[in-house]
Amino acid sequence: MQYHLNGFKPGNYEVPDEAREPYPDPPIVDLPNEVDVLIIGTGPAGLTMSRQLSEFTDIKTCIVDMAPGPLLFGRADGISCRTIEIMEAFNSSEMVVKEAYQLKQNTFWEPDEDNPENIRLTHKIADARAGLSEFTHGIVNQARLHELLVDGMERSVTHLSPHYSRELVEMNIDDNLTQNLDAYPITATFKRTDDAGAGKTETVRARYVVGCDGARSKVRKSMNIPLQGDSANKAWGVMDILLITDFPDIRVKSFIQSKDHGAVMTIPREGGYLCRFYVELDLLDKDKRAADVRLNEHDIIAKAQKIFHPYTLDVKEVAWWSIYEVGQRIAERFDNRPAGSSEDIIPRAFVAGDACHTHSPKGGWGLNTSLPDTFNLGWKLAAVLQGRSDPRLLSTYCTERRKVAQQLIEADRELSRLVATRPTAGDDSEQAKVDTAKIESFMKRQSGFVSGTSIEYYPSYICTGHENQHLATGFNIGQRFHSAEATRVADGRSQHLGHLVKADGRWRIFLFGDTQTPTDPSSAAYQFIDFLASDESSPVHKYTPKGSDIDSVFDTYAVFQQQDLSVHDLHDYLWPAKGKYGLRDYEKVFHAEESNDIYDLRGIDRSAGCVVIVRPDQHIATILPVTAHEELTKFFDVFMIKQR
Predict the structure, then answer these.
(1) Please, which pLDDT band fits residue 428 given cuts at 50, 70 and 90?
(2) pLDDT tens for residues 505-529?
(3) 186-194: long-range pairs with CB below 8 Å, 24+
(4) Cα torsion at 342, 476, 473, 105 (round to 10°)?
(5) Mean pLDDT value of segment 188-197
(6) Cβ pair 319, 241 in contact under 8 A
């Protein structure tokens, strides 16, 4: 898709440039008095949380922001492979893939040895993240991602919409009520910021609150959670521009170092014309902030023009610009529990996204770390609120996501040093030369982390079974379920198995059969399925509410090596009767494909098979032998609440 030819216009890119209009500010609707979950902030973390919770009619959710309406432009632009996988869980990946610039190459430019005032191309390489996912790392306006999430909320069964023009004035947590799950221990007071409501305040009581309100989070401050780390004395300018240039790699992500004027990183944007520049500026004085820099977009352009010599930059329009300082900080904790609390202390307030980790934007990690924060937390909150899981499950959010944030801070600190030509805080050198080979090595080494595909959670009671990792070496326990294709038995369709794991709060059980035919009642696969379906001790029987569809909590799929199968010859549980009419579900059984055999791609033991348990956030919880019936029940017994 191409757009922005005659100037940048925000909005739905499916609408032609000449007809596209900015989103109007939505109408003001009174806040509810009481909610189950109060979300503060409509960035990627807040909208991901509300998008998940919008699917549950028995959970009352409210999301609030001080802005007058949706984001229109600026902020993040990179959409990692993992983020697109999550968008697929919301059935929204197709528009992201269709509209985004797909990042395939990187180029590196340095001062010309013969004429150091000029820059020259040193090499061009394929993007290191290629092949890590069925999706490609993309570049698209953060506002467009927000729109897709909000559209999904509004079309959901709850028709959830954000409340804008509200500034959080005060938030209190009644510590005497936090361990009473029926109580509303959080009280939040908001001030209207629109002209019509000037001076009006509203109060909301909530069971849980999630602060997604940015680096200066009032939610975090109300919980007295300090940010740890420091800010480097380095400023960068960022701008989205429409330009004319003779620079040959303007449509390729490029790292450019000049001799005397600093460095630039360019990132082509969606639509074919727009481009983002990160331009290295001068050092900041001690205790100065980027907001104190007396520069504007014209200064950033002038600096970039010097760096690009001998190539010319004729900037026709600046769609958005900002100046920021490089700094890495992380919150001491991600919930309201005192540091060192046991898992038996139930958290009731959380922070996510920039509210608990801040860093430079060059690595594209802000949005792509913030969104998975609440993708991790959302299903856990839903499970606890619906009485399906023990409340101590909520403590795993801080344990799992703070580790990721710490890795992010360390990676960002390293990248910030690599791409700067002038020293940052703690660097006493007069000038630190950019070594593009080191940048290339960093990108290769960190490709899995940058893409989000190698994010791994600590071993815990919801990430366990590492002694069975050899049964499927390509499905790493603790990491996301790495999708691969298989053929659906009922109709011969090729299906990405990872796309079956939707953001609906359900657990997925993937059975990979052994060499025995699964129609044989004596086979391990048949006996495993019969255990799930018929045994009173199976998790399906213990934790599925009476009267609900058999797959309402555990959605089971089977993949077999045998290709001459008929669904009607298999156990009834694999083509269950569901819904008010008892219609059969024919989409749960697959066989391996001949050319891209999932057993080979994911290192699955053909002779033994295995069972892969996938959490509602798409991360692998455990791998078990097909014969491990009792172990499967024990896994869920640790944290789930019996429903029958």
Answers:
(1) very low
(2) 999 999 999 999 999 999 999 999 9
(3) 186/38, 186/348, 186/349, 188/38, 188/40, 190/31, 190/64, 190/166, 191/166, 191/167, 192/28, 192/165, 192/166, 193/66, 193/68, 193/165, 193/166, 193/167, 194/28, 194/68, 194/165
(4) -150
(5) 95
(6) yes
The yes-or-no verdict on residue 426 having pLDDT over 70 is: no
Q: Which residues contact 499 (CB under 8 A, 6 or more apart)?
A: 88, 483
Give the other-Cβ count within 10 Å of 556's Cβ: 22
> ∠ CA(517), CA(520), CA(526), 5° rounding?
85
Nearest to 470 by CA among 599, 612, 626, 603: 603
**How far is residue 387's CA from residue 213's CA, in Å, rounded to a whole number?**
28
Respond yes or no on whether the N-terminal peptide bond of residue 338 is cis (omega within 30° of 0).
no
Give the whole-angstrom CA distance, residue 301 versus residue 259.
18
Phi, psi of 123, deg, nearest 5:
-170, 160
In whole angstroms, what is the distance from residue 440 CA to residue 330 CA? 26
State the Cα–Cα distance between residues 48 and 543, nearest whole angstrom: 27
Contacts of 221 (CB under 8 A, 6+ apart): none
Tell me the C-alpha distance between 495 and 484, whole Å: 8
Contact, 70 vs 148, CB < 8 A?
no
* Best CA proximity match to 620, nearest among 455, 448, 484, 496: 455
- Do residues 279 and 419 lie in contact, with contact meaning Cβ atoms separated by under 8 Å? no
pLDDT in tens, 287-339: 555 556 678 999 999 999 999 999 999 999 999 999 887 678 999 999 999 98
Buried b (16+ CB within 10 A) or exposed e, 64-75: bbbbeebbbbbb
Q: Read off the pLDDT of residues 243-286 as tens digits, 9 standing for 90 and up.
A: 999 999 999 999 999 988 988 999 999 999 999 999 988 754 55
- Tell me the backbone φ, ψ of residue 293, rounded to 5 degrees: -75, 125
Residue 72 and residue 79 in contact, taking contact as beta carbons nearer than 8 Å: no
pLDDT digits (tens, 9 = 90+) for 576-618: 999 999 999 999 999 999 999 999 999 999 999 999 999 999 9
Residue 59 near residue 48, CB atoms below 8 Å: no
| Phi, psi (deg, nearest 5) at residue 397 | -60, -50
| Residues contacting residue 492 through CB under 8 Å, at least 6 positions apart | none
